[in-house]
Amino acid sequence: MSLLNNEMLAQCQPFSCGDADLDDFFCNDTDNYSRQLLGKSYCYRFKDDSSVIVCAFTLAYSSVDVRHLPNSRRKKITELIPHEKNLSSYPAILVCRMGVSKDFRGKGIGTELLYFIKQWFLASDTKGGCRYVTVDAYNNEATRRYYIANGFKDAFSTEQQEKEYLGMPPEKELKTRLMYFDLMLLSSKV
Questions:
Q1: Which of 42, 87, 102, 128 has the lowest tally of Cβ within 10 angstroms?
Q2: Sign of the torsion angle spanned by Cα atoms 98, 76, 154, 61
Q3: What is the DSSP string of 54-111?
């Protein structure tokens, strides 16, 4: 794994995951995002040719704020947390951006990458607590199916519920859906 920044990109072949917004971010915005302390970007390169970026991702610390969630949602998200540990928000890592090179699609790399991220934040050498992995997943069937297949759950049971939480008008399109994975499902501390 390597930091993804302009210096790295200059040494590599152009990266494209096939999504114009993600491609633009990974090729043009990672340094600025890092300078602004909004997140750090990383990549994995092809073992046989280090100039080829196989996948890229950006992470940021976040939280799952349960204060304003409907009761049923709050209970679902915090079901594995002992009652004496009830907080108003819980530490999380946000997968801000993630893309697999279109040349390497269909090989399970995205699933391996999510598994790596989950394990990375379970490691005892991480600098802070991290209970959840969250993502604002593109609101389309293929993306949502991918995250569900990797153990993620919707933070809200309906789009309407999420729009209300975000203060969005009902007629406005919801471009992403908040999803989460509880790391305690992988922890030996359950």
A1: 128
A2: negative
A3: EEEEEEEEEEEE-TTS-HHHHHHHTTTS-GGG--SEEEEEEEEEEEE-GGGTTSSHHH
CB atoms within 10 A of CB 90: 21
Inter-CA distances, 49 with 29, 56, 61, 89, 186, Å: 24, 16, 32, 43, 33
Q: What is the pTM of this model?
A: 0.88
Q: Is position 150 within any domain?
A: yes
Residue 180 maps to which CATH number? Answer: 3.40.630.30
How many Å apart are CA 8 and CA 51, to the nearest integer?
A: 9
What total of structural domains would you count in the chain? Answer: 1
Q: What is the pLDDT of residue 190?
A: 43
Is residue 149 situated within a structural domain? Answer: yes
Q: Is residue 2 part of a domain?
A: no
171 in a structural domain: yes
Closest CA to 189 of 133, 124, 94, 136: 124
Label residue 109 exposed, middle or buried (CB < 10 Å: 0-12, 13-18, 19+): middle
Summarize pLDDT for 58-95 with one digit per residue, the tens: 999 999 888 878 788 888 888 888 776 678 888 999 99
Task: Give the CA distances from residue 10 to residues 24, 31, 65, 117, in Å, rounded to whole numbers and listed in that order.
Answer: 15, 13, 39, 25
